[in-house]
Amino acid sequence: MSPARTCLLIASLLSAGALASPLAYVPNEKSATLSVIDTASGVVVRDIAAGKRPRGIAADPAGRTLYVTDAGSSVLLALDADAGTVLGTVALGKSPEGVSASADGQLLAVAVEEGNSVTLIEAASRRVLAEIPVAGRNPEHAVFSPDGRWLLVSAEDAEQVDVIDVAARRQVGSIAVGLRPRGIGFSPDGSRAYVACELANAVHVIDMEARKTLAAIPAGKNTAGIAVHPSGRQVYVSNGADGTVMVVDAATNTVTATIPVGKRPWNMALTPDGSRLYVANGRSDSVSVIDTASARRVADIGVGELPWGVLIR
């Protein structure tokens, strides 16, 4: 092959790689696997062994390293996304749930249910920086604000979300919401937070500067998951008992569409361009795919048993 043709082939391969569709990673709590979905084809391309009981999932900004909470072993797994191999583990308290990564990828935060705490971890070294007690019992999610200054923590036995100052590594306040807060999402600019309150069947909208609830949006039964569109104009809410996802207009705080999905929809994720929403259906062992432009479910993809959530990279 001539040097010119070789250069053309390399350029084509690099271009194809750059344009490759993202992958969706689905932790299956009962199967102890991650299902990997090619978002272009809608096909599960492989399954990755992930401890004993995988729940929460996050990744570094490049998507090369996956971080998965293993509730069965009380550890955080660091996995090579390409090879599917374990790079290392971080010991945690009993029953870890949600994990999130700061936008710069430097920090990880894990909600530890039975410890009533959040574990703050340095991602590069996988070193525990702090164990931060929180007021809410049985914390489920600890989510970084877009600027990385704050963590909002939801707990199953609470009527508030707790606020952690990341630099100070301690809880500095709480914001009253509905009973049993679960999923949390931020507007892209960090000025608003959206909290699904399962037993209140509502989504609370929080003004982060004032640290108070601005609105409570009626939702379906057993509201669970939250995903915020990259534009900030729509907020997606899963309703576990109803088997639906609602679309909320962020400007008016009103529901504009209700979309049927599988049984017990839980945590969700959007593709980077916001065109597709992937919904983990815990009792259907599937992921529903929603076209956000038309607000329609366009596919259901079979995964492992008891899918907990979705990460897209």
What is the rounded Rg?
Answer: 19 Å
Oligomer: single chain
Uncertain ranges: 1-18
CATH architecture of the domain at 52-176: 7 Propeller
The CATH class designation of the domain at 52-176 is Mainly Beta
Could you spell the SSE succession in H and E letters? Answer: HEEEEEEEEEEEEEEEEEEEEEEEEEEEE
> What kind of sheet is the major sheet?
4 strands, antiparallel
| Share of helical residues | under 10%
Strand content: over 45%
Average pLDDT taken over every residue: 94
Supply the helix-strand structural class: mainly beta
Number of helices: 1
Cα separation of the termini: 35 Å
- The number of E-state strands comes to 28
Shape designation: globular
CATH topology category name of the domain at 52-176:
Methylamine Dehydrogenase, Chain H
Task: Write the CATH homologous superfamily of the domain at 52-176.
Answer: YVTN repeat-like/Quinoprotein amine dehydrogenase
